[in-house]
Design goal:
This protein is α/β, with parallel strands linked by helices. The chain folds into 2 domains: 8-41 and 169-318, Rossmann fold (3-Layer(aba) Sandwich); 47-153, 3-Layer(aba) Sandwich (Rossmann fold). 38% of the residues lie in helices and 16% in strands. It has helices at residues 21-26, 47-61, 77-89, 103-111, 132-148, 160-178, 193-205, 260-274, 280-295; strands spanning 17-19, 31-37, 70-73, 93-98, 115-119, 152-153, 184-188, 210-216, 254-258, 299-305. It has a 6-stranded mixed β-sheet with strand order 1-2-10-7-8-9, sandwiched between helices. Strands 5-4-3-6 form a 4-stranded parallel β-sheet, with helices on both faces. Strand 7, helix 7 (193-205) and strand 8 (210-216) form a beta-alpha-beta unit. The chain starts with 16 loop residues before the first strand and ends in a 15-residue tail after the last strand.
Length: 320
């Protein structure tokens, strides 16, 4: 039994790893598929790890002053994590988010004490689907607010505390939970922090582990494929950015692409067959892992359920 924790921050990390035998049987593939339930973090996503990592790294480096405002662009998950971390540590937090993201995320951040600023989508963008152009508008707004308020920009795409949180946390946890019996790691690319940190941690322990990056079909920029569809529904990634800084020195053993429809259907299958209520990116991860097992039967693949399905109730993910 865990002892009493001094704050909710002690709950971040050490998430369960679950075997998906029923789903593997349903899709008639041979092998073992394991998922890290990152939605069991207090902010219901893996970004809680990155939020804590970025803030604590900034504190150590003297980049963040006591009581200073923190600003970050977010699809909602990093913002939720930062709202929790900043609230506990006493930093005012401003979340800047596109109106294309699901409203539940803005509501949750506000409930946790964040000031939420919603930015209009770019002309031609589809409501409920955030494009690279939308993210550029959000970034411009975040930069302006940071300068105006003399704030600290959390900058999840560049702060090393992001990938280090997975290097010191998620990766070693997966290694310990599997007792080193892992052949493949699969991860949907957002900032690239999870992929970078976990890949480095796992390959230090077992270089033969193959690590595959997942992107949406039509927006697989890191894989070097033509960009044909930036209006996919998989929130939190696939913005058609090829220059993710965290991946510059990280080996990528392969790339997998998943359509928005495939991610949606897999999220629903996870709920139906495994009782796991995740979001689009978790569905994309598992759909990619199934692809991999079909090509490489008899192996063990580990991936993550990045966030909770509760964050998508206003989208068509759970439309009855």
């Amino acid at each position: 039994m865990q002892s009493i924790l001094p704050s909710i921050l002690g709950v971040i990390g050490n998430t369960p790893l679950v075997q998906l035998d029923r789903l593997v049987k349903h899709f008639e593939v041979d092998g073992s598929l394991l998922v890290k339930l990152e939605y069991m973090n207090p902010g219901f996503s893996k970004k809680d790890r990155a939020a804590l990592g970025v803030i604590e790294e900034a504190e150590k480096a003297g980049l963040l002053k006591p009581g200073q405002t923190v600003v970050e662009l977010t699809s909602g998950n990093m913002g939720t994590g930062l709202a929790i971390v900043c609230g506990i540590k006493g930093y005012p937090f401003v979340a800047v988010m596109s109106k294309g993201n699901s409203i539940e995320r803005a509501q949750m951040m506000a409930a946790l004490g964040a000031e939420v600023i919603l930015v209009d989508q770019a002309i031609g963008s589809i409501p409920g689907q955030v494009s690279g152009a939308d993210l550029e508008r959000v970034d411009e707004a975040a930069q302006h607010i940071t300068q105006l308020r003399h704030a600290f920009r959390a900058d999840q795409f560049h702060r090393r505390g992001n990938w280090l949180s997975h290097y010191h946390g998620t990766g070693p946890e997966i290694w310990a939970q599997t007792e080193g019996k892992i052949d493949y790691f699969v991860d949907f690319l957002g900032s690239g922090g999870t992929f970078a940190g976990v890949t480095k941690a796992l390959k230090e322990r077992k270089p033969s582990i193959q690590c595959y990056a997942v992107e949406p079909e039509g927006a697989a920029a890191v894989a070097g494929l033509p960009i044909t569809d930036i209006n996919h529904p998989i929130q939190g990634g696939g913005y058609a950015y090829a220059d993710l800084d965290f991946l510059s020195d990280v080996p990528i053993d392969g790339f997998l692409q998943v359509s928005g429809d495939a991610a949606k259907e897999m999220a629903r299958a996870l709920a139906k067959y495994e009782g796991i209520f995740g979001g689009f990116s978790g569905g994309a991860n598992v759909a990619a892992a199934i692809q991999l097992l079909k090509r490489n039967p008899g192996n063990t693949v580990v991936t993550g359920i990045c966030d909770s399905g509760l964050k998508y109730l206003s989208t068509d993910l759970w439309k009855i």
